[in-house]
Design a protein that fits this description.
The protein is mainly α. The protein has 16 helices and no strands. The N and C termini lie far apart (about 40 Å).
Length: about 400
Amino acid sequence: MKKHHYAWTICAAGTLLIFITMGAVSNGFSIYLPYIRDEFGLSNAQTSTLVTMRLVVAFFCMLLIGKYYELFEIRLGGSLAAAFGAIAFTIYSFASSFPMFALGAGVSGLAYGFGSMVPVSILMSRWFDDHKALAISICSAGSGLGSVVLPPVITGLLSALSMKTVFRLEAAFIIACALIIYLLIRNNPYDLGLTRLGENRDRLAQAAKDSAAPRSLKAPLTKGVLVLSCTGCFLMGAQGNPGIMHIPVLFTSEGFTAVFAATLMSIIGAALTVGKIIFGEVTDKIGGFRSSVIFFVILALGNGLCCLAGLGSPVLSLAAAFTLGFGYSVSTIGPSIWAGDLSSEFEFSKTVRTFQIFYSLGALITASVPGILADHFGGSYVPAFVMFTVMSVVASGLIIGAYIKRK
């Protein structure tokens, strides 16, 4: 029987980290937004601003994330990032006005920013030689898993308990997860006397002998490729994170029930979870360029179908949720895959941070736009999804252009 490599335990811990810092703090929190708006009398713009507050803090965390993980390393730093999520939900539990909810959203940005795909991508690169894209996609699927598990649980709890109690239960759950993450993660394989998964010691010895020989290394990232890819990541973030956060209010504003909107979020989460794993596996087989093109088409189609929410068709809405969830795989995992394909090995850590910074900046700038548009268009969020559709198409073209220019 083949021995289990600890790299897969690291992958499980990374998945749990993303489940908390992206699934619970971001995607799962979107379920609360209609309830918060209605119970505490927030406007659509204020409701969207809660998303903005999280993204503002997360963006500045991205700028500091290199220093953060130099100070704490990934094991401790990731666990602390998850703990910030628990603090945020504790603050939510005491909130009764917009400023307090905004404070909680800002603290949640610490979890989202420091516990993002950056540390997970670096950790998977340290632990995996083979199946690296698959490992990254499995970890990223944690956010989709949060969209599957949390919406029905949160909706059910809110129907039986007060919102404050539900917030406190989620805070306790996150603290327990943060402890598990700390117990499981090891920063490097050599901490346990191991090599990366798929890395052969004999091959390493041979590589050392051949190190003096001339080698063909990937050239450094050029300015033109960097501009194209960063702009593409910016637009991917601009349509991705704000898009999924506003799915519940999109459909409730068009006359669907909150329970049906929560069901759609679960479908998006399930499709996102499966899509990320498939995207990673396909990338390992046919490369990041071809797999990205396939998923670009699915993403644009999913955004386009959401624009038809006003037709009131449950079947069409279910199809939109599944397609969009599947397509979101490329916008969430994409920056990590593109960084590996477009940069040299020595630039990977810096490049993935840069791509994530631009992704976060895009999400930050458009986070409040859906609510503002909804207030302007009589409460409808359809115009925002028209904007997201255009952004996804343009972003796809820019990333494809970056690959072509790189080649």
